[in-house]
Amino acid sequence: MVGGSLDAFIGEVHRKAAALDSAFELVCGAFSSSPEKSKATGEALGLNPNRVYGSYKEMIEAEVKLPENERIQAVSIVTPNHVHFDPAKLSLENGFHVIIDKPLAFSLDEAIQLKEIVDHTGLILAVTHTYTGYPMIKEAKHFVDSGKLGDVRKIYVEYPQGWLSTPLEQEGNKQASWRTDPTKSGEGGAVGDIGTHAANLAEYVTALKITELSADVNITVKDRLLDDDSAALLRFNNGATGVLMATQIAAGEENDLKLRVYGEKAGLEWTHSDPNTLMYKPLDGPSQRLRAGTGYLSEAATLNTRTPAGHPEGYLEAFANLYLAFHRAVTDHINGELKPLSEYDFPDVEDGVRGMAFVKTMIESGKSDKKWHKITG
Amino acid sequence: MVGGSLDAFIGEVHRKAAALDSAFELVCGAFSSSPEKSKATGEALGLNPNRVYGSYKEMIEAEVKLPENERIQAVSIVTPNHVHFDPAKLSLENGFHVIIDKPLAFSLDEAIQLKEIVDHTGLILAVTHTYTGYPMIKEAKHFVDSGKLGDVRKIYVEYPQGWLSTPLEQEGNKQASWRTDPTKSGEGGAVGDIGTHAANLAEYVTALKITELSADVNITVKDRLLDDDSAALLRFNNGATGVLMATQIAAGEENDLKLRVYGEKAGLEWTHSDPNTLMYKPLDGPSQRLRAGTGYLSEAATLNTRTPAGHPEGYLEAFANLYLAFHRAVTDHINGELKPLSEYDFPDVEDGVRGMAFVKTMIESGKSDKKWHKITG
Amino acid sequence: MVGGSLDAFIGEVHRKAAALDSAFELVCGAFSSSPEKSKATGEALGLNPNRVYGSYKEMIEAEVKLPENERIQAVSIVTPNHVHFDPAKLSLENGFHVIIDKPLAFSLDEAIQLKEIVDHTGLILAVTHTYTGYPMIKEAKHFVDSGKLGDVRKIYVEYPQGWLSTPLEQEGNKQASWRTDPTKSGEGGAVGDIGTHAANLAEYVTALKITELSADVNITVKDRLLDDDSAALLRFNNGATGVLMATQIAAGEENDLKLRVYGEKAGLEWTHSDPNTLMYKPLDGPSQRLRAGTGYLSEAATLNTRTPAGHPEGYLEAFANLYLAFHRAVTDHINGELKPLSEYDFPDVEDGVRGMAFVKTMIESGKSDKKWHKITG
Amino acid sequence: MVGGSLDAFIGEVHRKAAALDSAFELVCGAFSSSPEKSKATGEALGLNPNRVYGSYKEMIEAEVKLPENERIQAVSIVTPNHVHFDPAKLSLENGFHVIIDKPLAFSLDEAIQLKEIVDHTGLILAVTHTYTGYPMIKEAKHFVDSGKLGDVRKIYVEYPQGWLSTPLEQEGNKQASWRTDPTKSGEGGAVGDIGTHAANLAEYVTALKITELSADVNITVKDRLLDDDSAALLRFNNGATGVLMATQIAAGEENDLKLRVYGEKAGLEWTHSDPNTLMYKPLDGPSQRLRAGTGYLSEAATLNTRTPAGHPEGYLEAFANLYLAFHRAVTDHINGELKPLSEYDFPDVEDGVRGMAFVKTMIESGKSDKKWHKITG
Q1: CB A274 to CB D274 under 8 A?
Q2: Average pLDDT, whole number, for chain D?
Q3: Closest partner residue to A262 among B153, B154, B249, by Cβ?
Q4: Which of A271, A315, A323, A324 to mutate to test the interface with D (most CBs of D within 10 A)?
Q5: pLDDT reported for residue D237
Q6: In this complex, do C286 and A296 lie within 8 Å of one another by their Cβ atoms?
Q7: Site from A316, A319, A327, A331 to mutate, D interface, most D CB atoms within 10 angstroms
Q8: Nearest-CA neighbor of B200 among B317, B85, B322?
């Protein structure tokens, strides 16, 4: 693991997600740019002190020298965005698979380079667009794929948060600080942090691509340096249209990603605050409340659940589902049995590149008086 | 009453709304352009046959000749949009107050003319933007007014319906036919039918005005002549931004107008499917579930409820609240005691004009490659 | 109308319910035991002063002397329980149909006498068990009747209120005072006021009868004279079992009557706080959310709705549905075309008698150490 | 681990719960009464084959001979009820701490014996009443403890499931088979399987004890040997009353444990289908929606959450919270620093004994014509 010292948020999430199903064992790490913090984290996690490193470079260099059956198989990168590219590149170039927090990189350029390295090395790179790991998102995708909606016509995806309603970054909040710092986050604030999740979810479930968008991108809180609020009108490659809303100044909201997809024959609704439910709304009959863990779901949904209906699973389980899928791919790769990536069903480097293209286009559009901007990437 | 024959929808709603609190007694009508249908409707309603007229002209002309204590006081106009202006004008010019279904008129021009007539005659004209009649909408307005949100920053308003997902207008559905017919509805389809409600609600609750918008306006169903789907990015006169969504092709949705307002200090959420609840979401404490009929609500909310908490009131009661407010103004006018209109708290001719300006700007913006369009009106 | 002066709650509800659909016109009343209050109420309601009476006796005596086409057709009795029997008896004996607030009477004896008078006179008597008037309750009944649940096995019905959590009756609250006064309410407090609604609803929807019960009946608030809390284990005539909970000391609850019925093949759930929804839960598929006003409902549900799906109807509309059904029966009676009462689908004198038998048995059981008590009546 | 072969449900839950926070490492097991199945399970879990045993006796005997720093610290018992007592006894007598699935034992007698052994050995025994591990249950307990409800007056606890609506046990369903088999489950079916959870939760949150109950216990499905449905009127040691419902024939229900507690000043509501929310309902103000992961919660709630508000945690996390608390106690015990058990806040052997006393009293009451039965134990 690169990053994820004890006071970080997402590093611990990655660790628990990997531990839940015992898919991966955490054996080494460079948990902080401060060697002391890295060491303290390793100790707290009960790691062998010899494998707690002062930097990711040190880690990669040391691990690659270990015998094959001792060295790591994959690197989990959980640092802020500006420290994604270098450790990912180094890991891949030394033969290690990579799982990396979103967005993939600091810029679209970096993302494209990473894709080239992945293509070149043939290694596995997963990006943790967590929400695609939920079983009822798998079911939603299955409903669209199997034609139950007919042609998709309208997509609403929203991601309201309220935690940046005040200038937390000026009050020493670590999570707020790097997320609102353009030297660490890149071009996008809310757009990169949560807008990418929203765009990814919409594309994942519908198997469509956003081709054009018209964005309103705002800095709401005084003296903030990056956007904390955004919305966009969307056009998709099948002619469908949509609306995306991603904001961090919706006072009182938590983390309520919500997706609604409407087709000729039916609508679907999924919301993160009730993740084990998917509402299916046919045109001419009662809405149906599909529930995780039941016997009537698709194979993909079932594969991503651990308990019977009525036993809520949540964010860590969804995250763990990504780790499981990544683990399947890594294992098959090691055994020389890698199948086409789509069969593993995790967000890969292409999703990561699209995410960065989305950020770039949103920011451009937000500054432009032209209505529609094409996404390329 | 003008319009509202037995097979119409909104006419019966107006009648029940007026009857619920016995605010107005229905004494005469021209219920249809077909004298036979008008007559049959009057009979079914138990009216004096002498006061069931073959046309609104006939009605106004006859009524104005009756002694003052027998003739009507106000005219309720519930026809399709293209038959709003003429009967409203005639009524006002003959001294009758008017309550009229939204949108106010067929075009912005007509609306402006009506405003001039109202200004000139000093009579009362109410437009039935029903949703402003709900008690928890009054409470939401009260929360904003009293500063509980601080400055408003973000407004989401959405109005998803699904009933026009198929070409109902080609299958003889009367409601669908005139709503999708530009010669009867005017420029806007969904934009006029439900978008105006959404825009009106956002402005009403926040006491802000939409100054600019960027719209995506679509005809989704093949061969339809007017838009059935729309969305817009919004800018308000205090610098707040917003998103409006109004669609009639959201398969499986009913009539779920929803408003969310976020300020510096808190958010508010109201949804038409649970109209007796208002969620208040302060930044630093638990969300609160405010309920109609309770003792802790504002005077305006209480005035618009009939039963104690836990006794659901709905659409007809909200509609009746408009009639009650209109009735108060009419009574005061008749008694020569009219107060400033804002004290009666019903949507008036200015709201009607703004609605038509909204429609015009949405349609223009939808066709334009320029991003932002100013609303004037 | 007997009772229902301006400061009463339920009288105004009856008036609005009758007015909503213009089923009945209110023409006279004895609104209070105080002639002054009666007069003031009549004036406020715009009645002919000659027909505002000082007592119900005076009213009945005067009205019966009017010509047939002028006199009243039916009497609405909305007084506290101890003033149900006498005016009902007098009305029936003078040829007037009666609609009466629940519970039917002060005691089971009175109720049985009323039934005899009804049987003898052949007149119509309706008891306003409001909740049976909701369209989705009609739908629930239809689901049970049509076998979609298979044999009913388990019934949960609950009616939690919180408004009597404090000794309101000692603070001059009029509603609380008579409801907690055994000389006005009869044997039952919460049991009579809301328990009867719960029992009636369970029996209505399932078409079953409670045969035995085991009750826990409590006075929770100090110095209160009647029960404010109760629960019972139930046995039904088909072998099904159930639980009934009726309490007025559930702090923070409003008026949340809820019914759940489970059969061999499916369950049903309806709750008063979301009355336009009925959840249907088949054993082996997703739950379905049935909604009032949609096209897929039964005839009985549709008959009891006024607006399309998504336009919430509530308590007053449900109440008005009882008035409509009563009106149909009264009209047919007057026209000499009365059909079997069950076809009109309103709670009648037999339901009223059962309600009183329920109260009596609950109170007896609450005081007894024997587990099961049979309901007779 | 004792029990928990690959086709079991709860064994895998225990394993994931222990793995999530890396509190315990699974190092050995006797996963089945079939040595082959045990071996296969151990292999699938990647255990050292030398520590995969053919029986729990073999396991305890072998482990106790290992050097202290190699041998197990605690035994997790996840077998059906009839195989709880023997392995628990043997583990404790050999110095191993025990965590055991509920109910504690096959009978009250066994439970009392286990308590004596625990008292005698001074070792730690935890019973996995999972639902007490939820953060919002901790918060509910905190609200009651800190007096926000005043004296508790009424408690409703319900646990409806539908999965035993059909005779699954006759169709080879393993989960159903042992649960409906009196030789494996003991006296209680639904009463033991889920009723004990409900009773435990009510007592845990309120810190009250059920002193008497009056139960209705039913076998609903033909030819079933144990109860599949039950309900009871409850009396608590402070004078409060309550209702408990535990059924497995509520067709269409999943696993919706729900607790409502009403005091003099407020009510609380928690439901397992939305476990990260606690509704707090004060008498005179709006209900409040308290949410897991927020900054305003008590220490106990916060200690039992892993992610910020809006990141749903669920059943496995609640289960893991029990393991964490048990782990803290075990660690302190090993370090000779054991504090009073209540400080660790997990269900212990006394809770287990009370559970068995509850089952015994429910079954007795169900068969009796006497209304109230005292719980002793």
Answers
A1: yes
A2: 96
A3: B249
A4: A315
A5: 98
A6: yes
A7: A316
A8: B322
Q: Name the minimum distance, in Å, from the CA of A30 to any CA of chain B.
A: 35
Is D22 in Cβ contact with A256 (below 8 Å)? no
Alpha helices (H) along chain B: 10-20, 35-44, 56-65, 85-93, 108-121, 135-145, 174-179, 182-185, 190, 196-206, 299-303, 315-334, 349-367
- CATH number of this structure's domain C10-130+343-347, picked from the four choices 1.10.10.60, 3.40.50.720, 3.40.30.10, 3.40.1370.10: 3.40.50.720
What region, left, alpha or beta, does residue B231 occupy, with left being phi > 0 and alpha being psi -120 to 50 degrees? beta
Q: What is the fold, at CATH topology level, of the domain defined by A10-130+343-351?
A: Rossmann fold (3.40.50)
Residue D204 to residues B11, D134, D230, Cα–Cα distance (Å):
57, 12, 21
pLDDT at D8: 84
pLDDT for position B264: 98
D282 touches chain B (CB under 8 A): no
Question: Mind listing the pLDDT tens digit for each residue in A66-116?
Answer: 999 999 999 999 999 999 999 999 999 999 999 999 999 999 999 999 999
CA distance, residue A223 to nearest chain B CA (Å): 15
DSSP A49: G
Does residue C87 contact residue C74 with C-beta atoms inside 8 Å? no
Contact C346, C325 (CB under 8 A): yes
Q: What is the DSSP string of A229-266?
A: EEEEEEEETTS-EEEEEEES--TT-----EEEEEESSE
pLDDT tens digits for range D133-154 = 999 999 999 999 999 999 999 9
Instruction: Give the model's confidence band at B377: pLDDT under 50 very low, under 70 low, under 90 confident, else very high.
Output: low
Q: Any CB–CB contact under 8 A between A303 and chain D?
A: no
Identify from B288, B290, B291, B298 which residue to disrupt to test chain D contact, counting D C-beta atoms within 10 A and taking the largest count: B288
Strands C97-100 and C74-77: parallel
CATH architecture for the domain at A143-311+354-367: 2-Layer Sandwich (3.30)
Could you tell me the residue ranges of all domains in chain A? 10-130+343-351, 143-311+354-367
pTM for the model stands at 0.97
Instruction: Assign domain B10-130+343-348 to its CATH superfamily.
Output: NAD(P)-binding Rossmann-like Domain (3.40.50.720)
Distance separating alpha carbons of residues C246 and C322, to the nearest angstrom:
23
Average the pLDDT over D314-338 and give the result.
Answer: 97
Query: Which residue in B158, B216, B287 is closest to A241 by CB distance?
Result: B216
CATH superfamily of C132-310+352-367: Dihydrodipicolinate Reductase; domain 2 (3.30.360.10)
Tell the CATH topology of B132-307+352-367. Dihydrodipicolinate Reductase; domain 2 (3.30.360)
Mean pLDDT computed over every residue of chain B: 96
- pLDDT tens digits, B176-199: 999 999 999 999 999 999 999 999
Task: Kindly identify which residue of chain A lies nearest to residue D160, measuring between CA atoms.
Answer: A310
Distance from CA of B260 to the nearest CA of A (A): 9
Q: Which of residues 145-204 of D touch A (CB under 8 A)?
A: 161, 163
**Strand (E) or helix (H) holding B218:** strand B210-218
The residue of chain A nearest to residue D306, with distances taken between CA atoms, is A13
For helices B108-121 and B85-93, angle between their N-to-C axes, nearest 10 degrees: 10
CATH topology of domain D143-308+354-367: Dihydrodipicolinate Reductase; domain 2 (3.30.360)
Q: Does A256 touch chain D if contact means CB atoms closer than 8 Å? A: yes
Chain A touching partners, 3 or more CB pairs below 8 A: B, C, D
- Chain A hits for B231, CB-CB cut-off 8 Å, are 233, 241, 243
ipTM of the prediction:
0.96
The per-residue pLDDT for range C48-78, each reduced to its tens digit, is 999 999 999 999 999 999 999 999 999 999 9
Report the mean per-residue pLDDT for chain A: 96
β-pair type (C241-247, D97-100): unpaired
